[in-house]
Amino acid sequence: MFSPAIRKPHLHRREKEEATPSPPPPAPAHSPSPGGFALSDRPATGTPAPWTTSSLLARISTSKQTDRAGDSDQIQPVHVAEFPQVVRNAQANLLQRNFAGKSMLVGGIDKETSLAWMICGNELFVWSYLAAVAKDCLALEIPSSLVGDKDGKPLSGNQWTVCIMRWHSSGPSTRNSGDMLHRRSSTGVILCNRRTQAIAYWPDIYDESSSKGPVISLFGHSDTSASDAISGCYRFNSLIAASVPGAAHECIAIASEPTGALWLFQCSPLRIHRREVHRDTLGDNGTDHSQKNNGGRSLVWLPSNESSEAAERKFFLLTSQGIQCWGISLLHGINVKILGSQEIVGSDGELGIKKDIAGQKNIWLLDMQIDERGKEFNILVATFCKDRVSGSNYTQYSLLTMLYKSNQKFPSENNVVKCERFLEKKAPAQVIIPKARVEDEEFLFSMRLKTGGKPSGSVIILSGDGKATVAIYWRGSTRLYQFDLPWDAGKVFDASIIPSAEDRDEGAWVVLTEKAGIWAIPEKAVLVGGVEPPERSLSRKGSCNEAVAEEKRRSQAFSTSIVPRRVSSEAWGAGDRQRPALTGVAQQAVVDEEAEMLLNRLFHDFILSGAVHEALQKLRVAGAFEKEGEMNVFVRVSKSIVNTLSKHWTTTREAEFLASTIVSSLAEKRKKHEKFLQFLVLSKCHEELSSKQRAAMLSVMEHGEKLSGMIHLRELQNALSQQSSSTRLSPQSKTPTAGALWILIQLVGEKARRNTVLLMDRDNAEVFYSRVSDIEDLFYCLSHQLRYIITGEEHPSVQMQRALELSNACVTLVQAALHYRAEYKDWYPSPEGLITWNSQPVVRSGIWNLASSVMELLREPGSAGMPMKSNLWSQLEGLTDILLEGYIGLLTAKFERGEDHGVLAQEYCERRDELLGSLYDLAKQIIEAKYQESSEGNDNPDLKESIFREVTSPILATAKRHEGYQTLWQICYDISDTVLLRNLMHDSIGPHGGFSFYVFKQLISSGHYSKLLRLGEEFQEELANFLKDRSDLLWLHEICLNQFSTASETLHTCALLSSPGEDADLTSTRKSLSFVERRRLLYLSKIAATAGKDVDYEVKVAQIDADIRILNLQEEIVQHDPEYAQGKHASKLLPPSELIEMCMKRGRELSLKAFEVFAWTGSSFRSSNKGLLEACWTNAADQDDWVKLSQASVSEGWSDEVIQESLQGTVLFNASRLCYSSDAVVFDGTFEEVLPVRKEDVHARGLEAKCFSVEEVLMQHDAFPDAGKLMMTAVVMGKELSYAAPADEPVDMDS
After folding, report:
1. Collapsing DSSP states into helix, strand and coil, what is residue 1253?
2. Is the model's pTM score more than 0.70?
3. Which among 40, 693, 908, 1258 counts the fewest CB atoms within 10 Å?
C-alpha cells in the first residue's frame, strides 16, 4: 500500500538525460516469482524485484552515472539473504502435497541471537540470516505428538511460536562478535503449539553428540491447573523465555492466555514442569466467551540490566485496560508474583488514554514493546470511533509511549492495588492512521509491534495477514512506509533489526518474508519513501475509502491554488509534483552535486581523450574548491574510485572466482586512481588543492596509500591461503582461508555490511576489499574484537600463529602505504599541521592492542619454540616501528598546530619504553639460543658479541630513531661498548639534553663519578649543562677542564647553599652540608680562585674569607641556642639577619658577635639593615648599668684613668673599638658610611637625610639623660684606641 517514493532527478539533469537517454536494462518479459508464485496483474510500484535491487544497480555503469551507489538506491529495500536450500525444498514439498490453499508456513527472527527460523510441515529450520548465503541450517523434526491433528496434516502456521536462547552469552559484545563470525554457540529452542499448549524443548540444537529428540510436555489432567476444563479452548497468545543462571541448559518460559491466565514452564534436559501461576482475570473461569480477549495481550521482559540482580527478573503483561508488573526469582525455586498494576485506559487522560469521549466506542491495547535501555514502553492502540458528521465508523491507530521509573519500589503482593504508578506518560499518543478500515477483533489482536530500528524512534507494525508498516514521527508529522514487493512474496512473518557492529541499540529494519527471503529497509527508504497517513488500513486489504480518495486526488490535480494535500504513494509518482523551495543547506547540496557531476564528466572525458578542456576554470565556477576535507568533491570522487563495487553477482560464485575478482578489481582501482592523479596535475587542480585545500589533497593521496596497502594485504592473504592449502593435513577441510587474517576480514566486512544495508547481499571479503577508504575499520576490530580471533582457550602455539599472521598483515599494510607515501612524496601537499590516517587514534589503538597481545604471548614461558618466538619477535619489531611512527606524526602535527600534546607525549613515551623493553628482553633469549647453537659448547665471547650486535641492530635503530634511551643504555652497558656509547651520545641530540643527559644520570645513579668525569672530557658542554643544577659535582668537571676561576665560583655557591632543595638533585636525596664540609668547600674555593689568578681574584678571595668568618661566627653563635642541642641548626646555614637577632636575644655574651657579623657581611647588607644596626647599639647600651656607673664616678670622684679603665669593660666601648677604631677589620667599606659616631659627623658628611649617628641612637636611651656623657666617652674612646683582631686558627682541610 505504502510504496517507497522514487527520488526525482533535478530538472537540469532530466533535460540532459532526455537528450542522451541511457535507461537501465529492462526487466525480463516473463519473470517467475520465487518458489513458483506469481501474480499477473501485480503493479510495477513497490519494492523492486531482485533484478532491480540496489546491489545490482550499483554494479551497472552508464555514461552519466558514477561508480558509487547513488542516494536513490538507498530508498529501495535491499535483499539481505535467500532462504537456505533445505527450506526451499521443504516449501516445494508442501506445494506438491497440495497445501497451497492454506497457510502452512510460519517463521520468525530472534533479535538476541540473530537467528531466523521457519516451520515447514513437520520440520523446524533454524539458521543465521546475517550471511549473504545461508549456511549451517538446522532441520529439527517436530514430534507428531506435538502436532495434534489426527489426520497427520500439518497445522496452520499461526498455531506455532518459538523462543530461542543462547547459553553462556556474556553480553552484547560477545553475542555480536560471535554472530559476525557466524560461529555456532550453544543454543536452546522452545517450540509451543499455541492451540494445544504443547511444548517441545531442545536444550542445545548444535550439540552433535546428542541424537535424542526434544523434551516434550503435553497438556493433560496431571498438570496443576484450576481451569483444565476450559483452558484448551484458548490458545496461548504470548510466550517469553529466559535462561536460569547457574544451571546448565535450564530455562523457564512464561505463557499468557487471552483470559489473563499465566503459565510457567520449567525446562531442563530431562523434563518440562508446567504450572499455572495466575488464574484468568475474567471470573467464572472465563466461561463468558464473548470476553475471551479481555485478559492478557502480550508479555515482555524488562531488560536484565535494569533488574537488581541477574537472578531477579521483571516482566510485564499487557491487559485490556493496563499493564501488570510481575517479578520472578530464578534461584531457590522459581517464584512468580505480581508486583504492581497500572491502568492505561481510564477516565484520566494524563495517565494514559482517556475513554468514553465523544465519538469513541471502544479502545483496544494491542501490543507492547520495551526499548533496550528499559526506559520506554511503546504501546500500540486501536480505537473504534464513529464520525458524528457522516455517521461512518472507522478505526484510529496510535502509539502511546510511557516512561518507566526504574527506581520504583513495589509493595507486598497484598497491596498491589495500592501500588504507586510505575509508568508515566511521555507525550500525547501519536496517531499513526487517523481514519482506517474497521477490522474485526481477531485481526486487531494479531497485530505485533517492534521497536529499536532505524530511523531512531521508528516502529514497525506487523499485521496478522502478513503486512509490515514502518511508522516514524519526522519533521512534525507521522510518516508510514509499507514493505511491499511487486511480485507475490507472501506474508511478512516477522521483523527485527540488524545487530550493529558497535553494540548500538539501533540497526536497520529487516523483515522475513514467506517466499522472497529476508530483506532490509534502509533508513533513507523510511524517511524519503514514507508518506503521511492516508485513510487506509494496516491490513493487506483495500480500504473502503479508496475510491473517494482517488476522486479527491483527481480534482486537486487541476487546481494550483489549493493548499498542498497530504502526500500519498501516488503523489510521489506524479510527474507534475510541485518542487518545494530549497533551503540554504539544500541549495549548497545541489551546488556540490553539480560540481561532483562536472568533475566526473571531465575526468571521464580525460580518460577517453587525454585532454583536460580548461577543467580548472570550469571547476572553479562550479564551486568545486569551496569545501575542505571529506566534503570536498575531489575527495568524494577519489573515494568513489577506490570504493567501487565489482559489477557482478558474487554470492553464488565459487571462492576462487571471488578471489580473482578481488585482485582484478583492486588492480583496476589502482590504475584508475593513478589516472585521476594525472588528471589533477595536468588540469592544475593539484596545484590549487595543494596550496589552498591541503587537507583535501592529503585525503586524495591517502586513498592511494590505502589502496596500495590493500593490494599488498590481498597478496599476503593469497600467499597464506596457498601455504595453508599445501600444508593442510585434514582432507575434510575445504576452506583454504580459515586463518586469523581471514577471520579479521570477516569481522571487518560483516561490520560494514551491518552498518550499510546496501551491502548485505555481498560476501564479507568482497565488502572488505571494496571499502578501501574505510581501512581504519580493520584497526577498530583489532582494538575491540581481537579476543575473538586470538582466544585464550586455544593452545599457546595456535595463539602465537594467529598473532603472527595478524601482525604480518598490519605491518604489510602500513608499510606498503608508507612506501607509497615515500614514492609519491612530490605529489603531497605541505604537511604542516596535517594528521595522516595512520596517526589516527583508532589505528594506533588497534596496533597497540595487537602489540600488547604479542608481548603477553612472548612473556609466557614454554609457550612455543624459539623459531616461532623469533618470527613473532620480528613482527613485534615491525608493529613497534609503525606504531611509533604514527605517534611521531601526530605529535608533530599537534605541535605545529599549537595544540596541547602533553598527555599524548606521555602515552608515546610509556608505550615506546614498554615495546622496546619487551623486544630487548626477548632478543637476549634469541641471542643465547643462537650462541648455544653456534658455539657447540665452547666459550667464544667474540662470537657471542657478534650475534648480539646482529640481533640487536634493528632494536638499536628503532630506539635511536625514537629516543629510546633506556634501551640504548642497556645495549651499550651489556656489551661494555664505550665507543658505541660515545657515538650514540654524539648522534642522539634530542630535547632535555638527549641521550647524553640520560647517560650522565645513569652514571650518577650508579656512583660511577670517575666515568662521568672521563666522559666530560669529550662532552664538556653537555656535562656542564647537565651539572648546572648539581654544583657539588660541577666543580669537579671544571677542575678537570682547568677552569679554576669557574670552579671557585661553583664551590663558593655550593658551600653557601642553605638546603639541598635549592640545588635540584637529579638522582637521589642528599643530606645538608655540615659546617665542616662547608668550610672545606670555601677553602677549596679560595685555593681555586688563587690558582685561577683572574683580574679580580683578590676580591673573590676577600669575599671567601668573609664568608669563612661568618660561618665560624654561626658555628659559635648557634652553640648558645637551646634548640641547637635538638639539631635544629646543626647544619642549616642561617641568614646574617637571623644570626644578629639571635645574638641580641642571648645577652651580653653574644652582643658583640652581632657587630662582628655586620663587619663581615658587606656594605650592601649594612645599608639595607641600618635599623637592625641601630638596634644592636641600643642593645649594647642595655648591657651595662650606666646610671649606676655615672653615680659611682661622681660619688667616688674617679680619676680619668679609673674612668677609662672602667669604660673599657663596657660593651659600648668594645663595639666602638670593633667597628670604628683605626685598625678595625671591616669587609667592603666602613661603618662610618652607614652610621657615623657623632652627630656633627653626619652634618660634615652631608648625610642628614640618610641616617642618624651612634650619638643620636644613644640619645634615645633611657640612661642617656643621666649618663649620656659617660656613654659617649666610651664610644669615642673605643674609636680612638686601636683594635687588634684575634688571628684565626688554621682549619684542618680534612676535619
Report:
1. coil
2. yes
3. 40
